């Protein structure tokens, strides 16, 4: 019985769970979001102990440029009835992309002690043609890439690629294969977003 109480954050199948949530819960929302002209970034909140999905969300910048995947997911979370809303300390915060400075602050202000991300800030700049995360960190906070505190008094953050690299050797190739398939789907969605964004009214597109 003791094992059931072990936080998923300490378990070796965490990378598997996080990629399942991306494939099953976030990507369908993001496909629809990109069709409607929104960026590809998404997020999900997951119960630390059971792995149950509490809520997933995706970028909704066409409604409000502050509705990044993470902040929009938090907005939806706080619209849940209070009895359906676990303590944020009991949740895993999953972000498809390493959060920008606004979303780092939002995760902090809402009391999460962790977040996990699939793509890095550098991926957002280089593979997704979205340089704003790194530009804002540099221009506003004078921080270069990787210079914010990835572990601090509020939270610990981890790249899913790091979880995969640390997975048992016999599972690693399968996880890497899944990660490649997820990245390929995001490539496709990013191309769709980039091809449709000319002429939209988003300040930083
Ligand atoms: Zn953000």
From TrEMBL:
InterPro entries: CMP_dCMP_dom, Cytidine_deaminase-like
Residues covered by the CMP/dCMP-type deaminase domain: 24-131
GO molecular function: catalytic activity
PROSITE patterns linked to this entry: CYT_DCMP_DEAMINASES_2
The protein's name in its UniProt record: Cytidine deaminase
Organism this protein belongs to: Haematobacter massiliensis
């Amino acid at each position: 019985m003791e094992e059931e109480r072990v936080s998923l954050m300490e378990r070796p199948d965490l990378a598997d769970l996080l990629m399942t949530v991306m494939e099953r819960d976030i990507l369908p929302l993001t496909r629809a979001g990109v069709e409607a002209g929104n960026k590809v970034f998404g997020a999900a909140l997951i119960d630390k102990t059971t792995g149950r999905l509490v809520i997933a969300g995706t970028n909704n910048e066409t409604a409000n440029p502050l509705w990044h995947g993470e902040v929009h997911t938090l907005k939806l979370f706080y619209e849940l009835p209070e009895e359906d809303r676990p303590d944020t300390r009991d949740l895993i915060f999953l972000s498809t992309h390493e959060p920008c400075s606004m979303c780092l602050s939002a995760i902090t202000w809402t009391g999460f002690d962790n977040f996990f991300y699939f793509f890095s800030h550098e991926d957002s700049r280089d593979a997704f043609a979205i340089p704003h995360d790194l530009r804002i960190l540099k221009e506003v906070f004078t921080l270069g890439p990787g210079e914010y505190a990835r572990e601090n008094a509020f939270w610990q953050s981890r790249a899913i690629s790091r979880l995969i690299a640390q997975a048992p050797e016999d599972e690693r190739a399968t996880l890497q294969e899944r990660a490649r398939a997820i990245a390929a789907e995001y490539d496709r969605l990013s191309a769709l977003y980039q091809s449709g964004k000319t002429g939209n009214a988003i300040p930083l597109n």
